[in-house]
Amino acid sequence: MGRRPARCYRQIKGKPYPKSRYCRGVPDPKIRIYDVGMKRKGVDEFPYCVHLVSWEKENVSSEALEAARIACNKYMVKSAGKDAFHLRIRVHPFHVLRINKMLSCAGADRLQTGMRGAFGKALGTCARVAIGQVLLSVRCKDAHGHHAQEALRRAKFKFPGRQKIIVSRKWGFTKFNRAEYTKLRQEKRIVPDGVNAKFLSCHGPLANRQPGSAFLSAGGAFGGNRGLRPIPPEKGIFPLDHLHQCDTEKKGYLDCLKSSGHKSEQCRHLSKTYLECRMAKNLMAKQDMSELGFSGVTELDSIVEKKKDESL
């Protein structure tokens, strides 16, 4: 028995029915590759971007997505070259389709139960698509923009319903307009992040703002979940670098820790949050701080005694 035509499942009815521990035995979707072409090219390489946008609320089968991917990729390789584009499938077939199989042979009425227990078995998968949702996206150079539009026009014939080809105003797959991206790139307020880009904002006290260090750096690259972190003037990005510069020579304690309640002039860029992580554990355990870049042994008792002496 062959696969039921996709026109039988085109309309969206009911709730999403994904694969789960209750819905087992689902066939694998036909489409297995969602990024085609030069997917590792940087964000600056391909400024031009064009989208194939759905103009109907419907189900799109995984077979249709695979056929559209093949058609678009084949034309782009032939016309622009295999190193001149990046194609991305923007929808994933997570919705499971069911079929209540009926027998059509002689004596079938004796073997089957008709509509009794009609909850069918998994037949395939499809993607639930809304109006205005992007199906396919192609980024390339400006010289190959007309080839990308023609490739998406050919991919349109693989889908049911109506679609529109829309040329994006953004730079590649980013969220920035082309003029805005160029301006921010010159100001070094955008950092490339693979096929995308990260924006470096200007949060922080104005007293700490100096030329060349007014913006933020991507804190995710330096560990922790604090997100973006301000760069102190003439200091390192990671707070441990800043602590290392405040380290006393041979006294066994840190000057920057003696004023953790209020920020001193020497450590005005250091907040108490940085003392509650790896450093605090090492201090409580009276371990050697040399692994963090400090000289000598820093113990919590000596810091407490020093604070008591200062209070007196």
From TrEMBL:
List keywords of the entry alphabetically. Answer: Disulfide bond, Ribonucleoprotein, Ribosomal protein
The UniProt entry, under CDD domains, shows: Ribosomal_L16_L10e (cd01433)
Matching entries from InterPro entries are given as: CHCH, Ribosomal_uL16, Ribosomal_uL16_CS_euk_arc, Ribosomal_uL16_dom, Ribosomal_uL16_euk_arch, Ribosomal_uL16_sf
Q: Does Ribonucleoprotein count among this protein's keywords?
A: yes
Domain of life according to the entry: Eukaryota
- Write out the GO MF terms: structural constituent of ribosome
- Look up and give the organism this protein is from: Arabidopsis arenosa
Q: Name one Pfam family in it.
A: CHCH
One Gene Ontology term of the biological-process aspect is: translation
Residue stretches making up the CHCH domain: 246-280
**What family is it from?**
Belongs to the universal ribosomal protein uL16 family.
- Entry's Gene Ontology cellular component terms: ribonucleoprotein complex; ribosome
Tagged with keyword Cytoplasm: no
Q: Which residues form the signal peptide?
A: none
Q: What is this protein called?
A: CHCH domain-containing protein
Sequence intervals crossing the membrane: none
